[in-house]
Amino acid sequence: MDYLHDISGRTGLRPRLSTALHKHWGVTLMIAPLALYLVVFYLAPLAGVLMQSLFDPEFTLEHYTALWTHSVYLRVLLNTLDISFWATAASILLGYPVAYGMTFFGPVWRTMLMAAVTIPFWISVLVRTYSWMIILGRFGVINNFLQWAGLTDAPLELMYNRCGVYISLAYVLLPFAVLPMHSVMLGIDRTLLRAADSLGSSPWQSFRRVFLPLSLPGVAAGFLLTFIVGAGTFVTPTLMGGPKDTVIAMSIDSQLEIVNDWGFAGALSVILLFTVMGLFALCLRFMGLESLFGGTSEAHGTPRNKRLDTRKNIVIQVIAHGIRAGGIVVKMSACSGPYARNAAWKR
Amino acid sequence: MKRVLFAMALCLLAVTTTAQAETITVCSYGGTYNKALEEAFAKPFTAETGIEVVFVSFPNYAKMKAQVQSGNVEWDVVEPSINGYVLGAHDGLFEPLDLSGIPVDDFVKGGIQPYGVSTVYYSHNVAYRTDVWPAGQGPKTWADVWNTKKFPGPRAVKYTAYSNLEAALLADGVPPSEIYPIDVDRAFKKLDELKPHIKVYWKNGAHAQQVMRAHEADTGSFAAGRMLDLAKDGVPVVPEWNGAVVDLDYLVILKGCKHKDAAMKFIKYTTDPKRQAKLAMASYYGPSNLKAYDYIPEDMARQMPSHPDNMKNAVIIDGEWYREHGKEVTARWEAWKMQ
């Protein structure tokens, strides 16, 4: 853990970043188009949503105070965080051995395994969720088997409740957990493990005392990324959840579609955004930016140019993760693209 | 060389003539329903007028509003249901229609509005699995759905307050004509009784079908057309016709669209009873022009929501009431669900 403290103690990123950008105007130039793109297509609509939640029709805090008068929406927010947290925890626990196991294979097998992890990414969430409905249903594969085997008399309630949401959401989120953990694990210097071996540690000891601490930044990055995606999820809890599993994306949808209250929908989105950003900040405080996204032991005590490389990575990744965090808000404001695609299966 | 030039000129001619033909974009619910619309209305319409019709889905209220407000209108004709129609009319999203020549009296009640002309009449009905209760012996009314002693088993209802409050009041013995204004307290009190038995709150037609197909529920509230569609596939389900909660679809023209006149022509074209009959037979939704029943075989007509016999105890959803009380009712409904 000393190592983590060491890094988080050196996170005075802002002055370093600006000097880096000054000195390396080439890099700045490279990032500029992306930054411009983000400002126009991401930050501007985001600001629009914020304005809508405050000025609908004129300046009012009513949409935010409505959160207290209709306390159900606070519960919806807590639900969202709870569902996202436990599904994320499950994906990390299931994903860690997978990510770890993948590091033992050569490039060919690793690519195949990587494909096995990422192919579900390309299949629509809707399809994946429907297939879980077939597995977990009242007369689904599992219940039919249990009853056939005489293990249960009545069908178990595996879905249309929190259980179904956790199971299917953990499945949907799994790749988001595996990929960052795996990339960090690949960067871990294996000679450290051999050193531990040569000093007489058992395989379990060298895993626990060397590999595990070094892989923690990957776990943290995976956790954060998965959690953010989970917090904005809509399709899975909508289809797999019961009445008690309403999440904030569903409330935003019904405010837009049934109630036509865009101000309140905007307020809900802003609250979600700030909650997630708050958690993000909290993680940064404890983990440090570099350990989260810069990744590996290389970040510490490496030559200057290499560290700069890491920093370029950080900038790009922070922006990329920012997109995730606000994804749902943009979906809402753009009202086309992903949001409309999700809506396309209605009725 | 001459030939090449000639071919090029021909191509150019072809391009310009297709560019001249007007095209309207109609946004509806997609899938088999859009196909039915295409067969019943669009193809003969294009043949007669030369105006092309392109179908897209899905009529998302937020997207409709965003198009009109931003002045970037992609859709000419859209088909919202009552809730979307009332909100849009209130928000000023639609062009007023030219209703001259439309036989208003032939239409179902509320079928012709200043901004919208209804195409289909669809309803939320009691439906049940016939492998649980033999056909004719299952729950027939909302009161039967609520009677969990006589008809035990899991229920499924729609995930909105919309249509469920009405069903609850009908189950509680309120006559169809006295549903509005809704006595919200009474409706929720009645819903409390059913709540422990509601296993699924279905989110859309496809989901409702999936729920019945996979036998997640034995009975509940479903769109009748979807259940008939399932029955056609051999799933043992039947809808009942006593006390339907009805939603109408309206064709509207978005304000600021590029082909207003052609869109108006298309909407007038859809009001013809023969064409409506064709749509109804292809989609299982009821025609809104009741004269269409002259062209639908009797046994099929009895399976349609807008058949005069089936309309006797029906309640048409009051979009105006929901526009005024939607926010309160939705908050209460969500809180009620989560309790």
UniProtKB/TrEMBL annotation, chain A:
Protein name, please?
Binding-protein-dependent transport systems inner membrane component
**The keyword Membrane appears for this protein:** yes
Q: Where in the cell is it found?
A: Cell membrane
Enumerate the transmembrane spans. Answer: 24-44, 112-135, 165-189, 210-235, 262-284
At the top level, the lineage of the source is Bacteria
**What topology does it adopt in the membrane?**
Multi-pass membrane protein
- Identify its protein family: Belongs to the binding-protein-dependent transport system permease family. CysTW subfamily.
Give all residue intervals belonging to the ABC transmembrane type-1 domain. 77-283
Primary site of residence: membrane
GO BP annotation list: transmembrane transport
Q: Which SUPFAM superfamilies match?
A: MetI-like (SSF161098)
Keyword entries, A-Z: Cell membrane, Membrane, Transmembrane, Transmembrane helix, Transport
- What is one cellular component GO term in this UniProt entry? plasma membrane
Extract the Pfam families matched here.
BPD_transp_1
What InterPro entries does the annotation carry? MetI-like, MetI-like_sf
Automatic annotation (TrEMBL), chain B:
UniProt cross-references to CDD domains, sorted A to Z: PBP2_polyamine_RpCGA009
Recite the UniProt keywords alphabetically.
Answer: Periplasm, Signal, Transport
May I ask which residue range the UniProt record assigns to the signal sequence? 1-21
Query: Main location per UniProt?
Result: periplasm
Give a yes or no for keyword Cytoplasm in this entry: no
A GO term for molecular function: thiamine binding
UniProt record, GO biological process: polyamine transport; thiamine transport
Q: What does UniProt give as GO cellular component?
A: outer membrane-bounded periplasmic space
Give one Pfam family, short name only. SBP_bac_8
Compartment(s):
Periplasm
- Report the PANTHER family cross-referenced here: THIAMINE-BINDING PERIPLASMIC PROTEIN, THIAMINE-BINDING PERIPLASMIC PROTEIN-RELATED
Q: What is this protein called?
A: Extracellular solute-binding protein family 1
Task: Give the classification, highest ranks.
Answer: Bacteria, Pseudomonadati, Thermodesulfobacteriota, Desulfovibrionia, Desulfovibrionales
